[in-house]
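Moderator note: this is an archived Q&A kept for reference. The question asked for a predicted structure of one protein chain; the sequence and the answer are reproduced below.
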Amino acid sequence: TSLSPLSSSHELTGSDQIDFRPFCRVAFPGPNWMFKWLIGNPILTLVYAISQAPSILLLFFVVNTFPHKSSMTWQDSLDWFLQPKRLAVYMAIRAIRKCVSPFIKLFLVILIKKVIIGKFHEGPRNSSQFNLFRHWLMHKLIPDGELCGTKELLGSHYEFISMIYRALGAKIGKRVYWPGSGVPMVEYDLFECGDDVVWGSRSIVMLADQFEAKKVIIENGGNVSDRCVLLPGSIVREGAVLGSGTIGLKNFVFPPGSKWLGSMNGRATLLEQKNRDERYWLTENLNTPLLERLDISPFSKAVYFRQANFYAIHWWLHPFINMSWYTLVAIVRSGRLVAAWCLTDLSLGGKTKRHDLNFFEYFGWLFLFYTGVNVATYILTLFLDIAFKWLIIGKRKPGQYPWHKNSYCQRWKLYLLFQGIRSTFPTLTFFQGTQFLVWYFRAMGATIGSDVCLYPTGADPMMTEPELVTLSDRVAVDDAILVAHVNTQGAFGLDWVVLEPDSCMRKFSRLMAGATLEYDSKLLEHTLVLPGDRADAGTVWQGWPSHLVMRSL
């Protein structure tokens, strides 16, 4: 028995007709130790070292430019370092590591891809050590969808991301809406994505299995929602919509304009099949004006065609906004230690008093002040997060919010940028499963009853629209998904999410916008309740989409 990529232990039966073991990446053949340790790891080390070169050179400049004694005590070293110019350089180093080093690393990765790794081709896996090494090295160089850390600096959704994928070998069309989480893959040359494709977050494209590599193609106007997995050879035809958690089996073709959802027994569920006469996509409407075509998403109309009824930020401006913010965050992060040093000196009476203390006394005081500054920073960023939410977003209400007709989506993306300071100072990690997390989400607008347990083992993400979520008394939510928005083909909308008393959501369960869990109902692992559906009182549900498992009342 083998489980599909989107499943749980509740689904041991039903998927045994398909062997999913070839898609388990840890089972992929790899190069021998000589290729890894004599070639691969030195390349990885060299890439990291060169990407850090600006920081190292700046540190070298500080050490060799500013005068210092040939023989220095630890007090003299602190006197030398705690000068305004040197502290400024220290903060600059942190900012360079955040905003410059990722681009150097990405450049080196693209260069290595062109010169050493080369182009990936369809066909059986060549078992030669060099070919296995190529796949292994590419995966090590870019192990996720973050693109060496440049994604968040450039803006996750915009044309710069398409440019990077093209530089890595992928064939990318125009006006693609990329997900905030990126799209992890390895064999970029085998990936094709058409015009006006809309992506959801946390989806994965697998272009090779244990035995062979095959192209994955998404044609014009396609929609790949959150948490989808596309296996080698899968094709999403024009205008096809893959809903949340859809699995694209190997060599499976999603017909034009069709709508699919989830993974049941290792297969996606067909929701709607369009006839050929109902198609309205690019290849059959060449005479239709571009902006009147239905496959042009509201996002494209606002961002690329400048058709919004408000000021839409130009896509090429986002890198300047993002890098300015992340530079400030890097300075604040490094400023904690600087503030602790300054407070320690002030409290002890300056550097004269410092020279009267031994090493352990001084650094004991420094540790206490650094702890205080660190705690204060975490608390301050939490309050800033709440303030940004109410200043930028305000109070959300159910409804439709197209990119080109309402500024909500743009404001939300700006808020998510500013909220990034929370990931730098992950205060909520310490609050998981506690009353503090309940108080935080109440401050963000959520309606939460008593004796509620939220995210004891974390969540990715935690609730994204708190004021549209109602959690009644004695509700338990594990690593589950409470997202009150939908973005099918760029049609962005918000709706209520309600959990009635004594209801429970277990790990990797999801309640979509407009759905309700009634009294004492439970969602098991890997369960999806669709928009507008209600899980009846006293029932237990499982599956993506959900089906009734049992009634407890």
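Archived answer notes: The CA atoms of residues 136 and 437 lie 40 Å apart.
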